[in-house]
């Protein structure tokens, strides 16, 4: 039993599990914001266009309840009176929320990918500049063609005396 708890602790403290938990928390908060935008900013004008002040109260009665519904009854009133309803207003609200949430996630991922591509290009550019700035530390022996230190005046492989005027030689 102790081994199971140890394995669980190791699993939960790994970076991937923590990253996943943070992602779920942020996603939940993002979803709440999107739902609020849809419910409070987009749906009221759509409801006015369709002649109903509350878009979520759009429904079709599938089965009558015990009492008669008054004109312009809300969905809550219909449910309270035992009516079975087809709630297309709520469905359209949820569909719009889903589409906006998907659009938001798409734009975030697209932005992150664009940022990562720019950072990769910048990193490659910096590496190329750094490589170009590095001075050589070795030269090729003109006699045996092996790499030797740039300041060498004699080749350690073939023992040839190197020309002092050769590039990299000490004068």
TrEMBL record:
It is a multi-pass membrane protein. SUPFAM superfamilies: Gated mechanosensitive channel. GO terms for molecular function: mechanosensitive monoatomic ion channel activity. It comes from the Bacteria. GO terms for cellular component: plasma membrane. Keywords: Cell membrane, Ion channel, Ion transport, Membrane, Transmembrane, Transmembrane helix, Transport. It is found in: Cell membrane; Membrane. The chain crosses the membrane at residues 20-38, 88-109. Belongs to the MscL family. Channel that opens in response to stretch forces in the membrane lipid bilayer. May participate in the regulation of osmotic pressure changes within the cell. Homopentamer. PANTHER family: LARGE-CONDUCTANCE MECHANOSENSITIVE CHANNEL (PTHR30266:SF2), MECHANOSENSITIVE CHANNEL MSCL (PTHR30266). This is Large-conductance mechanosensitive channel. It comes from Candidatus Brevifilum fermentans.
